[in-house]
Design goal:
mainly alpha, about 190 residues
Length: about 190
């Protein structure tokens, strides 16, 4: 998994698959059904817009947070990678929880059995910082970062770790975090 994730990161960090606006990207989502989504009756774009609108209502003066909300629901926006323009990736590689690769999986991850990696730290050192950790997904983070986004570091952190439930719900992998990561997670 770690080597596949690194190859895909190299492939997608080039940002050479397609050129489109966020709105055009959102429209592509209506062509797909997320097999893991419980709201199958609702179009993907509806969930994106509802999320962004809820954040806009709660934080009206934080423009960057509105954009972050739209992008960070990357379990949805990242689904554009299912489209042939972006390589027609399989759903299992694009959708779901994000978690660190290269170390033992925490039990809070749904499919946490990984016999190849039994050590807590794996290829990492304690407190190395999450910027050094390869995550299972994170394409929207790469797109945002690679397009010289106006989103501040806090927004990029939200985009990258929005679906890392093991980290922000279970408190797993904190031993990989440095002080900056801990501050961002607050």
């Amino acid at each position: 998994m770690l080597s596949r994730a690194k190859k895909k990161k190299e492939q997608y960090v080039k940002l050479d698959k397609a050129v489109m606006s966020i709105c055009e990207c959102c429209e592509l989502l209506n062509e797909y059904v997320d097999e893991s989504d419980p709201d199958l009756d609702e179009q993907q774009i509806e969930h994106l817009l509802q999320s962004a609108e809820a954040i806009r209502k709660d934080y009206p003066d934080e423009d960057w947070l509105h954009l972050t909300a739209l992008i960070s629901v990357y379990n949805y926006l990242g689904k554009v990678l299912l489209h042939p323009s972006f390589g027609a990736q399989p759903q299992w590689a694009v959708i779901g929880d994000t978690f660190p690769l290269g170390c033992a999986f925490d039990e809070s991850i749904v499919h946490h059995h990984n016999p190849a990696l039994k050590t807590k730290l794996g290829v990492y050192t304690e407190n190395c910082g999450l910027d050094k950790v390869t995550m299972s997904l994170g394409y929207m983070y790469l797109f945002a970062k690679g397009n010289n986004t106006i989103v501040p570091l806090a927004g990029l952190f939200i985009i990258r770790f929005h679906s890392s439930y093991a980290l922000h719900r279970s408190g797993s992998y904190t031993y990989l975090m440095n002080d900056e990561d801990k501050e961002m997670l607050k």
